[in-house]
């Protein structure tokens, strides 16, 4: 009995430590106070400021850059990561398959700062001007292994005879891929896509090394520069709240769909 109470108490303590900072941000997003912790009354003014054109142009631009980079990164990573995972899975040579999977895991185990420095030196060596394109390429580079890792378990769970059966029934390789394999591994692809978006939005170490000096900003670099000035823009509180709620709703929808599919 005591062990159960201790385990439950420990779990609730961890959840409190994890979510209390987010809860504080959510609460103080509904006040106009410039300094968080100073409640000046309920207000939606900070939320209004986010959507008023020209009020915080740099923050809006950083948000748009972050979202577009994340969507491009996730889309490209999911397409190429899925094709790569299928290629690795169909390798006949077990040693070659294990070797490629080992190489794929290296960027995951490496620190972000090492990847950032490596890509920075690569772009400098090749004479590629740093900016939007280099940030997108860098994000695709470190998100790709995670997509492969998300799709591989689904391929291993799939019946290996389905593809050959589709070919025997007259389907072309492309039709078999589109109508047989893709539906089977779609949950893994969605997981990889969501993971790539999350990692791209969250990344700072790789972005700061590859963003260049053209004035491009993402949310992570904007927050870093803002914090170095001695404080954070108050509108970051409602923006963080909106992002948190959207991610939470998305996770709930995905989990409910997953539960329904399991029941079927």
From TrEMBL:
InterPro entries: Bact_Polyamine_Transport, MetI-like, MetI-like_sf. It is a multi-pass membrane protein. GO terms for cellular component: plasma membrane. Keywords: Aminotransferase, Cell membrane, Membrane, Transferase, Transmembrane, Transmembrane helix, Transport. GO terms for molecular function: transaminase activity. Residues 63-254 form the ABC transmembrane type-1 domain. PANTHER family: PUTRESCINE TRANSPORT SYSTEM PERMEASE PROTEIN POTI (PTHR43848:SF2). This is Putrescine aminotransferase. The lineage of its organism: Bacteria, Pseudomonadati, Bacteroidota, Bacteroidia, Bacteroidales.
């Amino acid at each position: 009995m005591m062990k159960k109470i201790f385990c439950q108490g420990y779990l609730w303590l961890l959840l409190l430590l994890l979510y209390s900072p987010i809860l504080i941000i959510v609460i103080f997003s509904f006040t106009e106070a410039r300094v968080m912790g100073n409640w000046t009354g309920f207000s939606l003014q900070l939320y209004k400021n986010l959507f008023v054109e020209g009020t915080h142009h740099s923050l809006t631009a950083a948000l748009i850059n972050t979202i577009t980079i994340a969507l491009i990164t996730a889309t490209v990573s999911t397409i190429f990561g899925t094709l790569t995972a299928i290629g690795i899975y169909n390798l006949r040579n077990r040693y070659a398959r294990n070797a490629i999977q080992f190489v794929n895991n290296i960027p995951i185990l490496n620190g972000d700062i090492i990847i950032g420095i490596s890509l920075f030196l690569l772009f400098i060596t090749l004479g590629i001007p740093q900016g939007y394109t280099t940030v997108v390429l860098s994000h695709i580079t470190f998100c790709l292994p995670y997509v492969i890792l998300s799709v591989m378990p689904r391929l291993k769970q799939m019946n290996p005879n389905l593809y050959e059966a589709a070919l025997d029934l007259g389907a072309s390789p492309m039709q078999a891929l589109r109508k047989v394999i893709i539906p089977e591994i779609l949950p893994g692809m969605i997981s990889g896509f969501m993971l790539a978006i999350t990692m791209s939005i969250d990344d700072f170490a790789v972005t700061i090394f590859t963003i260049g000096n053209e004035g491009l900003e993402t949310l992570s670099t904007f927050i870093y520069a803002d914090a170095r000035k001695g404080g954070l823009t108050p509108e970051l509180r409602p923006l963080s709240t909106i992002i948190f709620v959207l991610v939470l709703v998305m996770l709930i929808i995905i989990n409910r769909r997953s539960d329904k599919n399991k029941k079927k």
